[in-house]
Amino acid sequence: MIRYIIVYLVSGRISLNQKTFEISKKDVNGPMNLAETMASAQTSEPEWSKDGEYFMDVEEFDGVPVKYTVTQVGTVDEFNIKVNYFGNTLASRQLKEHLKKVLGLEDDLCAFYRKFDHPEEPLSQTFLRLRGLRLMRGTNLFESLICSILSQNNSVLLWNRTARFLMKYYGKKVRFPDGSNFFLFPTPERLAKVKARELRARTSIGYRARPVLEASRLITKGALELERLLSSSYEESMETLLNLYGVGPKVADCFLLYGMAKFEAAPVDVWIQRIVEKLYFKNKRVSKSKSAEFLRDHFDGWAGYAQLYLFDFARRMTPSTLRARKPN
DNA sequence: TCCCAGGGAGGAT
DNA sequence: ATCCTCCATGGG
């Protein structure tokens, strides 16, 4: 408590403690659409809270929690990304590098558009509207894995809520100079100790309690090392992940893509399945594994990005257009 | 009330 | 290999 008082005194007026910098267009590889990126429901972590045009998140740097907001001014091609944060000792460069990674600012979007921008490629229909949509990366592998598990047969609204509950009940609480609090995502060690019954009662996690707890316990025991997968091939990582209870091809691909930025991964959910059948298989039914294989092959290194763009495409189609499929 | 949500396990064909 | 059903939970 005394430490907080001292911090207040030393920092003077609280508002002056807030610092600002910009990420300019020249720091970004191509166009950027922050709002679309934030709204695209990627499963690496819960959606950032939104205050007007500002998106807020918290990240620890060398054990020091930093709360920051980002907003984009200008257009998708002529823009600045404004970043505000609280902190006395943080080098803004550290936060800038963090954001470049999280928001995928180094991904060569123009190369992606160029490669598939021809009339016979249905994906190209999304490029105008989704221009600047980027693939976010989770910064915490455990969080990414758990969020991917939570999203299974669940709505974005509900799995986000459950993730927030996990943070609230089992995550470390951090305070900021402006008086606000935040709960970090819990560690596997902390979650491993929780009883399934308690978890269900507190977080509306449903039957996903078992896969979440089992993964937490495996990691705690050292029987599962997510960091090791970073240097593994897509196939090896996939094989390891499929051994986890409650983790199938779609959840594994979500983690591999959004958590580990393996661009070969193309999570095939019901929506991707429908749009792939419609656009690339003349509305004929194909298995999910076929769809995933097709995406990896057809989009050659850009499968994850293609999936991200196709997902939006699918969600915008009217249900009657999309669901009316030939039986065979 | 029923159906669905960025699926998966376990079982039966 | 492909096709069922069930799985918790809450929103529409």
Short overview:
The chain is of the alpha+beta class and 328 residues long.
List keywords for this structure.
single chain, 328 residues, alpha+beta, TATA-Binding Protein, Endonuclease III, domain 1, Endonuclease Iii, domain 2, five-stranded antiparallel sheet, two-stranded antiparallel sheet, 17 helices, 13% strand, disordered N terminus, disordered C terminus, DNA-binding
Set down the secondary structure blueprint.
Blueprint: H1 2-11, E1 18-24, H2 34-38, E2 49-51, E3 54-61, E4 64-74, E5 79-86, H3 92-102, H4 109-116, H5 127-130, H6 141-150, H7 156-170, E6 173-175, E7 181-183, H8 188-192, H9 196-203, H10 209-221, H11 226-229, H12 234-242, H13 249-259, H14 270-280, H15 288-298, H16 303-316, H17 319-323
Antiparallel strand pairs: 1-5, 2-3, 3-4, 4-5, 6-7
Helix pairs in contact: 6-10, 6-13, 12-13, 14-16, 15-16
The protein binds a DNA duplex (13 and 12 nucleotides) through helix 7, helix 13, helix 14 and helix 16.
Characterization of this structure:
- The chain is an alpha+beta fold and 328 residues long.
- The protein folds into three domains: 119 residues, TATA-Binding Protein, CATH 3.30.310.20; 119 residues, Orthogonal Bundle (Endonuclease III, domain 1), CATH 1.10.340; 54 residues, Endonuclease Iii, domain 2, CATH 1.10.1670.
- It has 17 helices and seven strands.
- The chain has a five-stranded antiparallel beta sheet with strand order 1-5-4-3-2.
- A hairpin with a 4-residue loop joins strand 4 and strand 5.
- The longest helix is centred in the middle third of the chain and has 15 residues.
- The N terminus and C terminus are likely disordered.
- The structure holds a DNA duplex (13 and 12 nucleotides).
